[in-house]
Amino acid sequence: MSKPVTIIMVEDDEGHARLIERNIRRSGVNNEIKPFTNGTDAIRYLFGADGSGSAHKDEALLILLDLNLPDMSGIDILRRVKENTHLKAAPVVVLTTTDDAQEIKRCYDLGCNVYITKPVNYENFANAIRQLGLFFSVIQVPQAET
Which of 15, 49, 85, 131 has the least C-beta neighbours within 10 A? Predict the structure, then answer.
C-alpha cells in the first residue's frame, strides 16, 4: 500500500497560504500540508541534511510552489527538484502571480506539472484554489524511484 501524499507548500504570503489550505481542505483533501514561507527552508526540508534528497525517496510528495519568494526564485527550486533523482517524480504545481508567457513556458520546460496564476481578485483566486483542491482529490502521485 502506498503512503499518503504529503503536500509541500512554498508560499511566503500568509494570507494566500491560509486560503490555499482552506480551499484544499474544503475540497475534501485531508493530506498533510507542510508549509514553508521561504525557499531556503523548503530546500533544506526537501533535500535533507545531506543535501541529496534521499531522505524523501520513499515518500509521495506534491509541491505547491510560489515563484516570488523573499530569498530565492521558485524557478531555482523547480530546477533543483526536477534535476534530483529522488525528487524528480514529485508533481510540482506552480501557483504564482506571474502570468508572463515566457515564465510559464520556462516552468513547463523545467518540468512543472501545472501552472496556476493567482488572480489579484480574491474570488477568482479562491475559485482557482478550489479547482486545485479538486485536482488533488483525483490525481495519483507516482512513487519516487528507489
Answer: 49
Give the separation between CA 105 and CA 107, rounded to whole angstroms.
Answer: 5
How many domains does the chain contain in total? 1
pLDDT in tens, 75-118: 999 999 999 999 999 989 898 888 899 999 999 999 998 888 87
d(CA 51, CA 45): 9
Question: At 13, which CATH number?
Answer: 3.40.50.2300
Do the domain assignments include residue 145? no
Residue 125: count other Cβ atoms within 10 Å of its Cβ.
21
pTM of the model: 0.84
CA–CA–CA angle 128, 122, 68 (5° rounding) = 75
Neighbours of 81 (CB within 10 A): 26
